[in-house]
């Protein structure tokens, strides 16, 4: 006789009867416990599949002390997250890795102080097994909230706070932003550009500061002219405005390194509106190499970072940390040591540079 819950859902007892084992054995198999022989484990799994049994998530959490979910916190307003393809690409990498490990992604957005407080309460309440955070700004309270929650945490981008030396340092995944910027500016210099400007992102983010530092490295031993530096806020509209400011301050500029492809699309519109030909009059190099880089007119020379792979690495790193902290395996795929990961950046030459 097959036992079913009200509404016809197969029960743990039904699986046990089908597999010819005890209810406790089924529970251990379903919840990933040890101490079950391989042949018995396979029999239970077949019974689960045959009956279409779905574990009760609340009961399972009581046994495993896990929610089966990871919180992904993005410290940006919705308007930017849904307008910038960078975020979609990184979330896709995260989602694919978590899905392969049968982990649910919970997306939490922060725009206001009330949002920060809500995120902090959510994490502290234990609704997730781990946290992925990215696009943090300097003095953001979110890292302290994650630490207070006691949850394993991995950051997207190099954290901007000093390592205290107490215990392991923060785990993060980043690209070599400084070297990518050096490649971009040296490329422009190698093509004869002598008045090279830069459009940065917000300098309270480490990625923007590292790219500005790389720009300065490539100009050395000469000093960067402050008139050739403008903040575009990592948005297309910001890129338009920053390019206009640069042309007003330094009309003789003949090259510009733009620290994101989205800002570069805005900069190209401004250059066109001012009658500047690209690349004949002004060479332009972006950063990211997302799909829009190949659609601009002309196609954008840019620095490639593998954003989707960075998302996958963040998730893998978190799964490894969760397994280490929880004492058992989480997820699948190649193991990743619990240490920061920095991926290389590579220049992709198209027509604009």
Structural features, described:
The structure is a single chain. With 353 residues, the protein is an alpha/beta fold. It has helices at residues 12-19, 23-30, 38-51, 57-64, 78-81, 85-100, 113-124, 142-149, 177-190, 206-219, 236-249, 261-273, 307-326; strands spanning 69-74, 104-109, 130-134, 153-156, 171-175, 196-200, 229-231, 255-258, 283-288, 301-304, 341-343, 346-348. The strands form two sheets. Strands 2-1-3-4-5-11 form a six-stranded parallel sheet, sandwiched between helices. Strands 7-6-8-9-10-12 form a six-stranded mixed sheet, sandwiched between helices. The longest helix has 20 residues, at 307-326. The relative contact order is 0.12. Mean pLDDT is 86; it is low at 57-64 and 327-336.
């Amino acid at each position: 006789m097959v036992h079913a819950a009200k509404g016809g859902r197969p029960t743990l007892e039904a699986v046990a009867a089908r597999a010819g084992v005890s209810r406790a054995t089924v529970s251990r198999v379903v919840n990933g416990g040890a101490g079950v022989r391989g042949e018995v484990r396979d029999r239970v799994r077949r019974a689960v599949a045959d009956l279409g049994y779905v574990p009760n998530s609340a009961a399972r959490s009581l046994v495993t002390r896990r929610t089966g979910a990871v919180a992904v916190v993005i410290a940006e307003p919705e308007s930017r997250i849904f307008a910038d393809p960078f975020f979609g690409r990184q979330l896709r990498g995260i989602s694919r890795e978590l899905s392969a490990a049968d982990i649910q992604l919970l997306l939490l957005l922060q725009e206001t102080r009330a949002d920060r407080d809500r995120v902090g309460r959510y994490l502290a309440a234990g609704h997730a097994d781990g946290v992925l955070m990215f696009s943090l700004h300097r003095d953001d309270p979110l890292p302290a909230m994650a630490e207070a929650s006691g949850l394993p945490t991995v950051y997207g981008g190099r954290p901007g706070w000093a390592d205290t030396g107490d215990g392991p340092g923060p785990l993060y995944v980043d690209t070599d932003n400084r070297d990518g910027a050096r490649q971009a500016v040296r490329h422009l210099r190698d093509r004869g550009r002598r008045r090279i400007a830069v459009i940065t992102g917000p300098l309270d983010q480490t990625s923007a500061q590292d790219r500005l530092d790389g720009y300065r490295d490539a100009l050395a031993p000469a000093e960067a002219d402050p008139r050739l530096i403008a903040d575009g806020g990592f948005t297309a509209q910001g890129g338009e405005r920053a390019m206009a400011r640069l042309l007003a301050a330094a009309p003789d500029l003949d090259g510009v390194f733009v620290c994101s492809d989205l800002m570069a699309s805005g900069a190209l519109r401004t250059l066109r509106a001012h009658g500047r030909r690209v690349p004949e009059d002004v060479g332009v190099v972006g950063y990211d190499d997302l799909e829009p880089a190949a659609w601009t007119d002309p196609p954008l020379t840019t620095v490639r970072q593998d954003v989707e792979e960075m998302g996958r690495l963040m998730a893998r790193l978190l799964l490894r940390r969760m397994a280490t902290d929880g004492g058992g395996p989480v997820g699948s795929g190649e193991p990743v040591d619990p240490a920061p990961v920095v991926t290389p950046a590579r220049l992709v030459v198209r027509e604009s540079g």
